[in-house]
Design goal:
- Chain A: Its EC number is 2.2.1.1.
- Chain A: Keywords: Transferase.
- Chain A: GO terms for molecular function: magnesium ion binding; transketolase activity.
- The complex is a heterodimer of chains A (303) and B (230).
- By secondary structure, chain A is α/β, with parallel strands linked by helices.
- Chain A has two domains: 155 residues, Rossmann fold (3-Layer(aba) Sandwich), CATH 3.40.50; 122 residues, Rossmann fold (3-Layer(aba) Sandwich), CATH 3.40.50.920.
- Chain A has 13 helices and twelve strands.
- Chain A has a seven-stranded mixed sheet, sandwiched between helices.
- In chain A, helix 2 packs parallel to helix 8 and helix 10 crosses helix 11.
- The longest helix of chain A has 15 residues.
- Chain A is globular.
- In chain A, 51% of the residues are buried.
- In chain B, 36% of the residues lie in helices and 13% in strands.
- In chain B, helix 7 links the parallel strand 2 and strand 3.
- The chains are: A alpha/beta (303), B alpha/beta (230).
Chain lengths: 303, 230
């Protein structure tokens, strides 16, 4: 575990990558609403018109990003997940989607990175909310080494991209691809691990005859990758996502329209708030995604 | 074509079915006409030029005056006005810039145009361009919190190529004591209040030199009752 000491947070890699892109791509602008703005204080001296902190004004920030994009620039927009996606949701719908322009939205905080902050700083509905709008690419990196390649590609394009950073990360990175990476092959079913859920899924399935798929890009959903996996294993599909439970179950059903299948979903509760503080590991247990609970549930489901 | 007040009323009548002054359709008419006729450096030929001036109609409700001016200036085929709101028409009750010729933003939901305009003004500044951005909002729309976030941002950042025109027909439900211009002044804007039906006053206010501040023009327009003369 000595490697842990020198590991960077995903948020640090994000800031370093954006700072590089400011130098190499004149289209890039970095917009913040106080959160993480300190990462960009130095580079703002070099690019005062392209690094902007608006104070705590998230609604304006998203529409301003749309205005930048209308003039041909590439806005990168950042704050905590609930303030980036949930609070200014109509600004995303109207200021980006309806104007038919793009932006790269990058959040931190995830669903319950540090539950001691309470419900206000948790954003488990973000990916499900973006699912109500067309044309979003959604990245959920599971390791800090996955952040740079995903972000550089997002910035170089002109589409609508959401990158969901977490303070939680897997022990090892997985090379970045557009869809599912097969990490293990089995016959009893297919387990899909999204982003930072991978370590728990690998531990939970160590003694289960399952195919394990991993992805750091959940939208678009890799229909072909899932169909290929299900062709070689029974069509028992387990989704382990770090946000609202069942967020991708409609995609599984869409991918397997003509294949008799069963789906079991894991994630944050939909039907009630978890009114508890504590640690992320406490909440893993609450939602049944700690390795022991996952192993028991998946075994029951496969049998 | 030689465009007159009468021509514009005839163009509006192709959408409304009569040539009376519908307040919702025409409260913005003088301001938009002055902009396209005397202020903006944009034409159908330069609509994609990055150096063109931008006009963002944030008050997308009741866009008849806007469409009429765009038709008078050659952006829109006047025949399109006859079939507006139909399935195949590019012109709806709220403008969609992806399908409507000459329209710079899609609007209707209140409180988006000003921050979109600030984003574009900031982009033009970052690109070293001199183009200006004009945004038209309503006094009811001014209630939206996103406008107040944006008013503060534009003032602090000294966006002197940005102008907001507020059509004030006193419809904001809880009102704005002491007037809207004062709010803008407090946030570092150069603000003035004019008669929104006096085209010369509008022109003077919209082209007044600024000193590094964004500009707000509050255009007061009394709602005109059905059948009254303009």
């Amino acid at each position: 575990m000595t490697a842990q000491v020198t590991r960077k947070q995903m948020r640090t890699v994000f800031a370093e990558t954006v700072i590089e892109s400011l130098a190499s791509d004149p289209r890039v602008v970095m917009l913040t609403a106080d959160i993480s703005s300190w990462f960009f204080w130095d580079v703002k001296k070099e690019y005062p018109d392209r690094v902007l902190n608006f104070g705590i004004r998230e609604q304006a920030m998203i529409d301003i990003a749309g205005g930048f994009a209308l003039a041909g620039m590439r806005p990168v927009v950042h704050t905590y997940a609930p303030f980036l996606i949930e609070r200014p949701f109509e600004q995303i719908k109207i200021g980006l989607n309806h104007q038919d322009v793009g932006a790269v939205l990058v959040s931190v905080g995830a669903s319950y990175d540090d539950p001691s902050w309470g419900r206000t700083h948790q954003g488990p509905g973000d990916v499900a909310l973006l699912d109500t709008l067309p044309g979003w690419t959604v990245h959920v990196p599971g390791h800090e080494d996955e952040v740079g390649p995903l972000l550089r590609k997002a910035i170089a394009g002109d589409g609508r991209v959401y990158m969901r950073l977490s303070e939680r990360a897997n022990g090892e990175p997985v090379p970045v691809t557009d869809g599912f990476t097969v990490l293990r092959k089995g016959t009893a079913g297919v387990v899909i691990a999204v982003g930072p859920m991978l370590d728990q899924v690998l531990a939970a399935t160590a003694n289960i005859d399952a195919t394990v798929l991993y992805t750091s890009t959940i939208r678009p959903f890799d229909h072909a990758g899932l169909r290929a996996a299900v062709a070689d294993a029974r069509a028992n599909v387990v989704l382990v996502e770090p946000y609202l439970k069942g967020t991708s179950s409609h995609e599984v059903n869409e991918a397997l329209t003509d294949v008799p299948h069963r789906v079991l979903s894991f994630g944050v509760w939909r039907d009630r708030e978890a009114r508890a503080y504590g640690t992320a590991e406490d909440h893993d247990k609450l939602f049944g995604v700690d390795p022991e609970s996952l192993a028991a549930s998946i075994t029951r489901f496969f049998n | 074509m030689q465009t007159t007040e009468e021509t514009l009323q005839d163009l509006i009548a192709r959408m409304t079915g009569d040539n009376k002054h519908l307040a919702a359709a025409t409260s913005t008419l003088d301001a938009i006409w002055v902009l396209y006729d005397r202020v903006l450096n944009v034409s159908p030929e330069t609509i994609d030029d990055p150096d063109r001036d931008r006009f963002y109609l944030s008050k997308g409700h009741g866009p008849m005056a806007y469409y009429a001016v765009l038709a008078a200036k050659g952006f829109i085929d006047p025949d399109a006005l006859d079939v507006w709101r139909t399935f195949d028409s590019p012109l709806g009750m709220h403008p969609d810039h992806v399908i409507a010729p000459g329209v710079e933003i899609s609007s209707g939901s209140l409180g988006h145009g000003l921050p979109l305009g600030v984003g574009t003004a900031l982009a033009l500044r970052a690109q070293g361009r001199d183009a200006r951005v004009f945004v038209l909002i309503g006094d009811g729309e001014f209630d939206e919190g996103s406008n107040h976030e944006t008013m503060a941002i534009a003032g602090r950042l000294g966006l002197d190529r940005l102008t907001v025109i507020v059509i004030d027909n006193k419809t904001a439900s809880l009102g704005w004591p002491d007037g809207i211009a004062k709010r803008f002044e407090m946030e570092g804007w150069l603000a003035s209040t004019v008669d929104g039906r006096d085209q010369d006053q509008l022109y003077q206010a919209l082209t007044r030199e600024t000193d590094g501040r964004p500009r707000a023009v509050v255009a007061e327009v009394l709602p005109i009752s059905e059948g009254s003369a303009a």
